[in-house]
Amino acid sequence: xxxxxxxxxxxxxxxxxxxxxxxxxxxxxxxxxxxxxxxxxxxxxxxxxxxxxxxxxxxxxxxxxxxxxxxxxxxxxxxxxxxxxxxxxxxxxxxxxxxxxxxxxxxxxxxxxxxxxxxxxxxxxxxxxxxxxxxxxxxxxxxxxxxxxxxxxxxxxxxxxxxxxxxxxxxxxxxxxxxxxxxxxxxxxxxxxxxxxxxxxxxxxxxxxxxx
Length: 212
Ligand SMILES: [Zn+2]
Fold this sequence. Notes:
The protein is an alpha+beta fold. The chain has a single domain (3-210), classed as Class II aldolase/adducin N-terminal domain (L-fuculose-1-phosphate Aldolase). It has helices spanning 3-19, 76-85, 98-104, 116-122, 136-141, 166-189, 197-210, and strands spanning 29-35, 38-41, 57-59, 65-67, 91-95, 126-128, 151-154, 158-163. An 8-stranded mixed β-sheet has the order 4-3-2-1-5-8-7-6, sandwiched between helices. β7 (151-154) and β8 form a beta hairpin. α3 (98-104) crosses α6 and α4 runs parallel beside α7. The longest helix is centred in the C-terminal third of the chain and has 24 residues, at 166-189. Zinc ion binds next to loops.
């Protein structure tokens, strides 16, 4: 795919993230590995509802700007870590979906083993323990988690999703937030019952077999 097409895609999905309420104002960031030493990333401080393709920045694997004006996203460490540890996933998307963030504040909630469609589409929802936003520590906090799945919730902060395309990474944000909304409603009614063990295992095996 041409780099301009990738830029236009990133802009379109940033607008969608904003329209859907998955981030506010300048929140959130997206990166795409274009090739060796070339990573496209959203700039810092730009409202994602009004982002333009020419504002995107190209950095190298050390986070140094190769092309573009302005500075890359403040969450660059998180993107570099995810792209380094998951060479099979060239797209990394970070958003702030409200229900995911709300659920991440409470450790005693049941996020896994309840909804079959979540197991089939996401596998397991993993919550990465809190690390300060816009820090090197946030990048390091992903080690041990980002290798295991494509859909992570960052405690007190948001989501991090990985994809083979911008579309795939976005679809996981939608899936995570929808699952979080259902689980939130269920927890309002009580403690949601788990699927029987054998059924959860069978669904997990189906997910592993179909995983791209
Ligand atoms: Zn954030």
